Amino acid sequence: MIGAILIMVLGAVLLGAALGYAAVKFRVEGDPLVDQIDAILPQTQCGQCGYPGCRPYAEAIAKGEADINLCPPGGAEGVQKLADLLGREAKPLEAEEKPKQTALIDESRCIGCTLCLQACPVDAIVGAAKQMHTVVSAQCTGCELCVSPCPVECISMQPLGENIDTWQWQRPVIILRQVP
Known about the structure:
By secondary structure, the protein is mainly α. 33% of the residues lie in helices and 8% in strands.
């Protein structure tokens, strides 16, 4: 009995060592440019750029297969940051720039079909089958992917109000007057 346990422990140690060596030897380094581009993107995973998520879009930008102005949630500010990073000229956004928004479910009309749960790429909608659903607004990225699958049209998009997390400082406009 003790011999069987020792053989199992020895086998586990040898396999663990082999896996550890393989992890170090065959490690694949990520592209640091892709990581930097991905960090600039808003991580909405909405697909509005034509790619299934922010990481594939970042990889396409790095390879030169996609332009930097395809991300509506990133807006003009995101395009400018990407242009600065890549040393390119900033272009106007391909789509309409929208204010930051969140989904809102009219819970009195929700039938609990779970189609919105399946459509949400960031799991910001909570609920169960045949029960009302609600949106965790702190998790919602405003991608609008949950709106179209809803059969009773109980989901609407609401602009985020200005608060300490969403407020952005704007440079003040200085008006100079000539003194007589």
